[in-house]
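During the reporting period the student researcher (J.K.) took over the structure-prediction task from the postdoctoral fellow and processed the backlog of single-chain submissions. One of the processed entries is reproduced below for the supervisory committee.
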Amino acid sequence: MNKTSEKVQAFPDKEITVMKIATILLCFIISLSIAAQKDRRKEYVEDLQFARKQSGHPCCDTLFFQSGKPVFIIASVSSPILANPDYFYANREKKELEANFKEIDPIIQLLTLHSSLRFDNDYNELIDMNDLENEYEALAFWDGKKESHVEILNSNTGYTEFVASKLHMNRVSSYIKEYNDLLKQITIYDGVFAPSVDSPGLAEKYLSNAIQNLFIHDDISNYGIKYNFDNVNQVNISMQLGDKKSSFGKIIFDRNKNPVSVSITNEDGRTNTATISYLNNLPEKMEADRLFNFFYRNDTMIVKQSDLRYEFYSLSDHGIKRDGYDFSFYPEYEYRVYKTSTSTETKNGCIYSVTGEDCDKKCFSNTEGQFPLRVTEYSNADKYWRKSIVEKITPDHYRVTTMDIDEEQDSNDKNLEADYIRDIYLNEKGNISVTTFKRRDEKESVTLTYDYVYF
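J.K. obtained the following structure tokens:
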């Protein structure tokens, strides 16, 4: 490392005649490509410089640090044209350094703009972070002594441990302890099997999603159409589009109507299968592209995936609550857990699904099984409405007509065209025998046919 001019590294990217002509063309194309890249780079840098000028922070300042006090420079420098730069890690490290090194009264500075840093030591060291095309995420540490070099850590975590090692002190970041404590609290449920009366309902709701994906990607029970798997051992599902017919999926049940195998065939012909094993009529393990283990503690069902992802399901007053903890989403050295929370409630003829700040809703014109049934959905995240009309054509034939409505359309417009139409047919046992799906802009419909094997 050159200590007289330090630069923080960013994270981060005929035959002879024909041959001559080809070579000339290739060189010409390459030269055009290089020229285009240079033009784009020049344009990019000019845009960055313009953005910096407009923001009131023209590139690039030089910051000077006198000797005498320890200096912690937390660099979190991103593109000036980035709309919402993320300072999560930088702010977290700043709080840790402030809390862990109060006694040495350091200068702690969060650097978010391209700059150069010059230090008043015997080496007149310069840290150059003014290349507008680069991003910088690192810690520059100097103990403030004339004879000491500036130390660089190219990382977004572990600043407290790095500084502590240089100062021969014992310090640990609090977020490491919090991460390990949470991991310990979560993994304590591994292997627990103490179900309650609510556990079967939670498990059935969880597994029903896989079954819905093989039918019409919707919970048709909301439409007054009930699944009937009495005495069903196996369902073989085929798909037809035009003249092309192919396998679509298969479900195998045990005598308790529990799905023990769910298979879906992809467009390329490959089949993905999930097999489920049960203990006391509750799912204990599911093997798919990864392993899922099911644990039960009182009114909570815990689903653990093999890569340290946990989901906690419990019943609320009007629905189901799900809390997710993913220890694999972020790299382990970042000590950060990806948390999600979703609650589903049924109230006054509507189903509300709340995830973070988003609240989606699905409302029904009646809950007494009267047809036609009008279903209105709103997606808060995507900002659009969806209206469906469910008609009972005959006792064994239902039709669902759906219209997607964006922000520019009037949801009360009676002349809205159907975006797609689904027809659902039942057999003599009340099982779905055929579903068809037709989009407005497509000539052919998709037909799914269900063949049943009974015990």
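The committee noted the following: The radius of gyration is 31 Å.
J.K. will present the remaining backlog at the next meeting.
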